Every structure is written in structure tokens, then in C-alpha cells.
Amino acid sequence: MKRIGTVVRTSQGLAVLRADATETSTDDGAAEDERSHRIGTTAIDDSLAEVGRVVDVFGPVDRPYLAVTPDDDVHLPSLVGSTLYAR
């Protein structure tokens, strides 16, 4: 389980996360955190419940924002301030 960021707000039915800083490199040269910031990554919460999927990555390269489309049973306002992880 890899931490991807903290939900800073909701907008237009999406959870907007501030991604954690990229630090670790892998053998193929890609940063490990960048892999969890890819579109299509499944986002989960502290209780390992699936929250949604990353649908957009935007902003500064070193610490981007992620837009997560929530699953149908997720109450968006309750996610603000929560840390999400990549499965």
C-alpha cells in the first residue's frame, strides 16, 4: 500500500488530492511515487476500502494534484482531510 496524498477539497463530483512529494527511484528510472500517481490507479482509504480511481493528474511536476472519481457509495465531503493510498 503506497500513500498517494491527502484530499484537500472536492470539486465537480471529484476528490482533489495533493500528492506526496516524489523521492524514491526504481531500477527503470521512474520514481516509485509517480507510478501511484498514474491515471487509473485505484485509491483506497485507511480501512482498505476502495474509494475510487485517479482520473487526472495536474499541477506542478514535483508535487501534483490528483483528481479521483469516487465510487457510488462514497460520501465526498467526508473524504476532505483524509489520506488515500494506492492499491
UniProtKB/TrEMBL annotation:
Superkingdom in the source lineage: Archaea
**Full protein name:** H/ACA RNA-protein complex component Gar1
Organism, as annotated: Natrialba aegyptia DSM 13077
What InterPro entries does UniProt report for this protein, alphabetically?
Gar1/Naf1_Cbf5-bd_sf (IPR038664), Transl_B-barrel_sf (IPR009000)
